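Exercise 7. Predict the joint structure of the components listed below.
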Amino acid sequence: MLEVALRHRFAADGFSLDAGFTADGAGVTALFGPSGCGKSTILAAVAGLLRPQAGRVVLDGQALLDTATGIFLPPERRRFGVVFQEARLFPHLSVETNLRYGERRAPRGATGPGFEEVVALLGIGHLLARRPAGLSGGERQRVALGRALLARPRLLLMDEPLAALDTTRRAEVLPFLARLRDAARLPILYVTHALDEVDALADRLVLLEAGRVLAEGGVEALTARTDLPLAARRDAGVLVGCTVLAHDAARGLTRLGFGGGELLVPLRPEPPGSRLRLRLRARDVAVATEAPRSLSMQNVLPATLEAIAPTGTPHELFLRLAVGPTPLLARVTRDSAERLGLLPGQMLWALVKSVAFGLPAPASSRDGPPS
Amino acid sequence: MNPGWLSAEEWQAVRLSLEVASRSVLVSLLPAVLVAWLLVRGRFPGRVLLDAVVHLPLVVPPVVVGWGLLMLFGIRGPIGAPLNEWFGVRLVFTSEAAALATAVMSFPLIVRAVRLGLESVDPGLEAAARTLGAGPFDRFLTVTLPLMSPGILAGTVTAFAAGLGEFGAVITFASNIPGETQTLPLAIYSATQTPGGEAAAGRLALISFALAIGGLLLAEFVARRMHRLLGRA
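Solution:
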């Protein structure tokens, strides 16, 4: 388990950071927030590249930084792999020598995936003899991932690894990130301001704003809360983990099972049994007080209205629904809520207009096979 | 080796010049890298002063530099006296003195070039090396040094080329002794002072010119290769 508590004030611009969180076991903890919220500063402090004025960084009981007792382990002795936004490959070394740089410096007996395995995992075998200058942005970032992993780190830190890439390259690298997460079996701290990366990769979420932690917890739980800045986004909605049950190629549909029932979605490429994670956007969920009939929508789920919450927009409200054990958010106008006479505790029908798959290669569960 | 169209004395001056310039670069290279490092990365009081002192030979008349060396390294000087008493080393009026004077004069040139090379190294790459487990010496050797090597090379070539032509400091500190301290420019000067020496002066000037052009071309060629090797093409 990683425990982080940091306080730092920058003299130059007066920005002050006062943040603490934990990240347990293997899996991805995303530090999410707008630019300038301090998430990269936190990452630098955990890596040891920034020495905060006060704080502690403890991994599995070992303090790497503790200003109270004067402990400060330099980055080269922390064994935390870092993937930077701009790859930072050594330009004078070949791809292979870059990959081996950390491997050669890893302590004897440190375990982790081997060279061949990492090269195959990231699909960079054909690049080994090349120089970084001749690689595309996406290829560079894949090599940087391999280099960090081969250093046999105890923890992987990723500082917006996809932010410098265009949409096409991002889509190219993201599946590799998901595979790496599943293969590495390490705690990963992932800094991003892109919600689709959170959807695709994160198990836990630490929400940051202006140097403070607003909330931390499981991704699915946090996306169901209406009191966080996440809810104010256009794409606000609950993340739901589900399993592919069956395909109906003739009708062009895939049946997904989740905690509260089943969903029909346009045909998916994943084989039955695959784990997926999808986002049910609040503005794509409508409600009815009676079972609707003759509807073009496929997905009508029985739900209980748990709470009505403000949205921040005066004429709209969030409805917090429970579909079995799964929470769901719907965004409706105040007028509709009054017209239907909605009250907490009421039985409703939730109509799901569409389903957003963050990315083509989800794989949210750690026990599932890499896709 | 003597091409024949030079007198033995003239050929000696050419050889001596090359020797003195090479030795001066050998002497000043390591300290120059160290000083450049301190100037770029160092955070200590007196950094500005160090910067100014390093650049002194560029702005002070060379004769004054030669005089200063004479005062320091003369057999009664604060450095020259102990050298003479403890080791029996007399520097003044030797080819070593010529090399030392040349080294002092070209020192700011090397420092400037090495400094430019070091400033072009992205500290982010060194940070990446740290996170991969490389300690200070390790990452200097494997990341910083290779990436700043074009600067070191440029400094070496510039200092060598400039060293071939050093006059004022050498003649003051090492004197003008044929075969010992009479380098190319000193030989040219002597030739112009000798009746009927115009031909010799012309030949030596031509050699100076050829060496300078050759040095520049070599520097350009090596710089291009370096950039390719460092992946900045």
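Discussion. The first helix of chain B runs from residue 8 to 41.
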